[in-house]
Design goal:
Shape: elongated
Number of helices: 27
Structural class: alpha+beta
Number of strands: 12
Low-confidence stretches: 1-60, 177-184
Helix content: 55-70%
């Protein structure tokens, strides 16, 4: 049986303090030293007679040893319970002091929060203090909660032992006697029962005392957490008022604000105390986060540079330039952002501000370098994105310092005016190439337009909102540039990995996935713009949770993002289905190529219809009401658009009936030509004159049409020839067959045949029937045969007569012959 070894004192309380490591060691020891009391061994003395007869009798003192060992374990457990209660008394004093301090601090912070209305930056600093207060209180409560949990666990074990003992006594009483020797182990059993009751009483007392200590502490912690929740909930409204409050921007207002500037300086010093780590532990944790993230970013840089070797030369050079320049700033900024997380759940605003600006500078430079690789015409041209950075950095610095509204209005107005003058000067020095795509021309002109818009908002008295607007537009143009550049990069990567001719399906999958992946990555690069602007994350949450409802449909920012992503995914599926169907005859030779275009069209229609249903489901549209409305409209639509639906139905019948396929040569509705496309509404036919004729599907299904190539491309054609009376008919037959057999496109089987068709008015009429291997060669072959017939008849002296007419006129002149 497991035994408890003697233990040294685990707690020392010099000066009324307690040691947390000692407590944790005690808890670990308690959990590791749980005595094992199998129920089978407890119930062994009370087994029935048959079982006792079949088992060997225990040694005379075996039961006494068992009860003694268990009694010793319980005695140690009782001592530990007393020690736990004593430790709880020691820990109660600092916890009580922490509770009193928490109550005082929460009252003070709540008052400061109310007094700082209109200054959300100060309120954020107060919220961080509340978080630290809540964390300190939670750390003081946690050891006592762990101790209470360990005591409750021991109480459950003791209760189980008590039940086993009671069961043993009941079974022994039911048998009418104690086991074989009434005195064997009986005294030890009674001592064990008393010790068990003593351990239970001490554990219960310790548990009750811990509950009394923890109850007020938990109540205070709940009050702190509720206050923190309420203050955080009021921050979005404070930031909204902060950005929509008009700011003065005249010199007279500036000269009247010295006292306001003094208050601002005092507030700034107070807020900066929480802007970076204060204690040595906090600085060490921040340094660890920075070092670990920097190592990860370095590894990513190495792997990216090695992987870029598979790209084209210009892309590989662009990636190398990115890693040497802009990526360094971005990686350093990400490392600083990683160090901005406090171990107490706060965020160091100074690190967040500096890291965000570094990441913004890196991403802006990276985006333009990749865009230059995609557009070689932009090589060595200055980046329009970097032009936006200085003004943006000045603006967010003003917001971070929370300048008074009057000073901020004047400062940002002056900054944006200087920025506009600089941008206008650069615009006059460099002329744009009209051949540049719209995105590049927009990027170069965005500095002027963004600056002008921000200046107008500033002059209207909303300088903070003007800075927010400028950063929003800056982020937008950067996302567009980066998305376009990444799309081109991923397409180049897919072309390098999978050749379009050798791996058409893989290439199609990679090319189709490149667009959504590129734009998702570009959107994931937007948070630094949000982190750099104080309070922007609250606006983002507000925008994400704002619903726009029209009838049953409801739209918010998250749903809009999902719908856009689904659009690109379905677009990729459509492209992949088209590519797979185009190469289907290569894998399934029995599939006719003419059936592929209709299948492509149907696959596209089906996927886009599924996309529409998914979007309607995301918007929350009630399909039952939609079906009712559709049923009501179907009657009117059926009457007003009868012809359209007739063509749609006929198109589906043509596509699935396969009476006409793309590439067939047909005569339909008075039009002869080759079928180029079968759409839902009409069928496109190309005539021999290269004209495209669009025949409604209903005209094809309702009328009679001829399909010359439905069975095969071979076609029979006839040439009618007349010879003069008196010609040798056998010779004519031989010459006709010889002229046909000289043509390469005339089939030998079935062989050409000559038919003597008629005795004409002025000629003997013959028909030469030939089978031509492909209908596309029919006109040229028939023309060549006619040339050969004319030549052979002329050499043989066989006359091809022309119509003659002889007129008999009464009178003196006899008859007159007229041709």
């Amino acid at each position: 049986m497991p035994r408890f070894a003697p233990r040294p004192p685990l707690f020392s309380a010099p000066g009324g303090a307690f040691r947390v490591p000692a407590l944790l060691a005690l808890l670990a020891l308690l959990l590791a030293s749980v005595p094992a009391f199998p129920q089978a061994s407890l119930a062994a003395p009370s087994g029935n007679a048959a079982q006792n007869a079949s088992q060997p009798a225990p040694a005379p003192d075996s039961l006494a040893q068992v009860w003694s060992a268990r009694t010793e374990d319980l005695a140690i457990l009782a001592k530990e319970a007393a020690s736990l209660r004593a430790s709880a008394e020691i820990m109660a004093a600092p916890l009580t002091a922490a509770m009193q301090d928490a109550r005082t601090q929460i009252v003070r912070l709540s008052g400061l929060f109310q007094a700082s209305r209109g200054h959300p930056a100060e309120q954020v600093a107060l919220v961080q203090q509340m978080r630290q207060l809540s964390g300190r209180l939670a750390r003081g409560i946690r050891p006592l909660e762990e101790m209470a949990g360990a005591i409750n666990l021991r109480l459950e074990e003791v209760a189980g032992l008590q039940r086993d003992l009671d069961s043993l006594v009941r079974e022994s009483a039911a048998d009418g006697a104690l086991p074989r020797a009434p005195l064997e182990g009986a005294a030890e059993q009674r001592v064990y029962a008393r010790t068990l009751l003593d351990a239970k009483a001490k554990l219960t007392a310790a548990s009750d005392r811990l509950d009394k200590i923890l109850a007020p502490a938990k109540s205070t912690a709940q009050r702190v957490d509720q206050t923190l929740k309420n203050t955080e909930g009021s921050l979005p409204a404070a930031w909204k008022s902060y950005y929509l409050t008009p700011s003065g921007n005249d010199l007279d207002a500036l000269t009247a604000t010295p006292a306001l500037l003094g208050e601002w300086a005092s507030s700034l010093r107070s807020r900066l105390r929480f802007a970076w780590p204060q204690s040595a532990d906090e600085r060490l944790e921040a340094l660890k986060g920075f070092a670990a993230t920097a190592a990860i970013m370095g590894l990513i840089s190495f792997l990216f540079l090695r992987g870029a070797r598979v790209l084209a030369k210009r892309w590989h050079q662009a990636c190398a330039e990115v890693l040497k320049g802009s990526w360094v700033w971005a990686a350093a900024g990400v490392s600083v952002l990683a160090a901005a997380s406090s171990p107490y759940g706060n965020v160091y605003s100074a690190f967040l501000f500096a890291g965000s600006l570094m990441v913004i500078a890196g991403i802006a430079a990276l985006s333009w370098r990749l865009r230059m690789a995609a557009r070689p015409a932009l090589k060595n041209k200055p980046s329009p994105l970097i032009r936006l950075f200085p003004a943006a950095a000045c603006g967010v610095a003003m917001l971070f310092s929370d300048l008074p509204t009057r000073v901020l209005g004047f400062g940002w107005g002056l900054t944006i005016a200087l920025f506009l003058a600089w941008a206008f000067h650069l615009g006059r020095k460099s002329t744009l190439d009209p051949a540049l795509p719209f995105l590049e021309r927009f990027s170069y002109r965005c500095a002027l337009w963004f600056g002008l818009a921000s200046l107008l908002v500033t002059l209207a008295g909303y300088a903070r909102l003007a800075i927010l607007l400028f950063m929003l537009l800056f982020a937008l143009v950067n996302i567009l540039t980066l998305g376009a550049a990444l799309t081109a990069l991923l397409e180049s990567l897919s072309a390098s990995l999978w050749n379009k001719e050798k791996f058409p399906v893989r290439h199609a999958v990679a090319a189709a996935a490149s667009i959504p992946v590129a734009w998702v990555v570009s959107l994931l690069c937007a948070p630094p713009w949000v982190w750099a602007v104080p309070g922007a994350d609250y606006f983002l949450r507000l925008a994400a949770t704002t619903h726009y409802t029209v009838g049953d449909a409801s739209l918010d920012l998250s749903r809009a993002f999902v719908i856009i992503l689904l659009f690109f995914l379905f677009r990729s599926f459509v492209s992949l289905s088209h590519t797979s169907l185009d190469h289907l005859p290569e894998h399934l030779p029995h599939v006719e190529p003419g059936v592929i275009p209709p299948l492509r069209a149907m696959a596209g229609y089906a996927l886009w219809a599924l996309f529409g249903l998914v979007v309607l489901g995301l918007l929350g549209v009630n399909f039952t009401s939609l079906a009712v409305v559709a049923g009501g409209l179907s009657v009117g639509i059926g009457i007003g658009m009868q012809n359209v639906f007739n063509n749609l139905t006929s198109g589906l019948m043509l596509i699935f009936g396969r009476t006409i396929l793309v590439g067939d040569v047909v005569d339909v509705a008075g039009v002869s030509g080759t079928v180029k496309a079968i759409n839902i509404r009409s069928t496109t036919i190309e005539t021999p004159e290269r004209a495209l004729v669009y025949v409604p599907n209903s005209a094809i299904m309702a009328g009679q049409f001829s399909n010359w190539t439905r069975n095969s491309r071979m076609v029979r054609r006839g040439i009618m020839v007349g010879v003069a009376y008196g010609s040798d008919t056998e010779q004519v037959k031989a010459l006709l067959l010889e002229a046909a057999q000289k043509q390469e496109h005339v089939r030998k089987t079935p062989a050409p045949a000559v038919l003597f068709t008629n005795f004409g008015a002025s000629s003997l009429d013959f028909t030469l029937n030939v089978f031509i291997d492909n209908i596309d060669n029919a006109l040229g072959t028939l023309s060549a045969i006619r040339f050969e017939i004319e030549k052979s008849f002329r050499e043989a002296g066989i006359e091809i007569p022309f119509p003659q007419m002889q007129l008999h006129m009464p009178g003196k002149g006899g008859s007159v012959e007229a041709n």
